[in-house]
Amino acid sequence: MKRFSPWRSAFGVGLILLSLNIPLDAQLAAKADTESRRKQASFLDRSHNGETLRFVVVLSRHGVRSPTATPAQYNIYSVAPWPEWDVPPGNLTTHGFELMREFGAYDREALAAKGLSLPRECSQPSGVTIYADSDQRTRETGRALADGLFPGCNAAVIARPEGINDPLFHPDATALTASDRAIAVAAIAGRIGGDPANLTVAYRVQIQALDHLLASCGVSTATQQKRTSLFDLPASLATGRDDHAAELRGPLNTASTLAENLLLEYAQGMSAANVGWGRVTGADLNSIMELHSAAVDFTQRTPAVARLQSANLLNQIVRSLDQAASDKAVEDAIGKPSDRALFLVGHDTNIENIAGLLNLTWIIDGRRDDTPPGSALIFELWKNQKTSESRVRTYFTAQTLHQMRTASALTSTNPPQTVPIFLPGCSGADQSCSLPEFQRSLEEALNSGAAKRP
User: Fold this and answer.
1) Catalytic residue selected from 211, 348, 365, 369
2) How many domains does the chain have?
3) What is the pLDDT of residues 227-274, one digit of tens each?
4) Is 348 an annotated catalytic residue?
5) Which of 25, 32, 103, 179 is the most exposed, having the fewest neighbouring CB atoms within 10 Å of its CB?
6) Measured between alpha carbons, how far is residue 260 from residues 89, 280, 348 in Å?
7) Is 62 noted as a catalytic residue in this protein?
8) Is residue 452 situated within a structural domain?
């Protein structure tokens, strides 16, 4: 039977081909991966003119998790039920654990290829600090990375107990003043024409495509359950609660959550019949996730919001790089001056906040500014042995959806995608910054336009 593609009207000719059952998924993925590996090798293998890799900060999102609410909570939007998961809402899955362990093993070999070898004996100091947020999905991701980096060593992962807020990853709710929250709302409002309903108008075609999928789900009208259309949801913008400075709700933001749930089904390796009720392919997801990128752009990348939510994390990154460059302890820096790497395991919001504040953008695996499970923002510290000058190079890395779905081994011939990041006002033609310029850029970002007190 001809497979229906709800994305035809929304996203153009490429998806019309998908609706005709042309088996493009594997072909496109293979072609994209081959081209990506070629380009990746060209910039990862380049000479750094007498520089030695001294230290790396890896800010990673947790691995593949289950949706953060129960299927019953999502079922109100679809005429067929969402699939059940084998872990509680928001938890890292077994598949997600294995993917992150694979990422850790790859990181070990990739660092060694750049001259930053890690010890193989468990009795030796690891030279790596792994610090995770307190949620199950982040703590377990840290443990998976540790298993990959140091197999059989039971390497330590630093984290607060479950349920205890860590201000490194989430601002302390009591530290967000009424003025902070008001500025965050005003900043978002200033980007959307003052009315959250404008987002529904601007993204109507994309939202409608997803809503059409939810209204059919491949089931007969006789078995369809009643549902709430995305367009029935009121759009609103208000001051946030707890550690959220502002809350933007409505059709686009709900569509964003449901779009990511579809991506999680695919990355988890669910059967094709379960991914979007058998109507969503990997190629479709690149278009569907435009809804997620758009919503995150407003809620997490708006500078006034990003500044409030990323200050502690950015300061920690600066301290850690400074500590490694000077070989001297820096107050409140995580880890030791002798460390080779620091892994910070948090959430997509952490990466998006920093990206929004520093104006960092990327395209990876065919998607703009997406932060899929396990993706990471990487800051490498290179030191010139002749001049002692330190430079920072920034990258973004992620497994492709195909790699996640198939749990394929990550190797030098099948690496995760990695793209260079240009830091405006700091990066040069080689896309690197001197350490002092990097520090200055971050300080300016944190201080410029900070909320003024009435």
Assistant:
1) 348
2) 1
3) 999 999 999 999 988 888 899 999 999 999 999 999 999 999 999 999
4) yes
5) 179
6) 14, 12, 12
7) yes
8) no
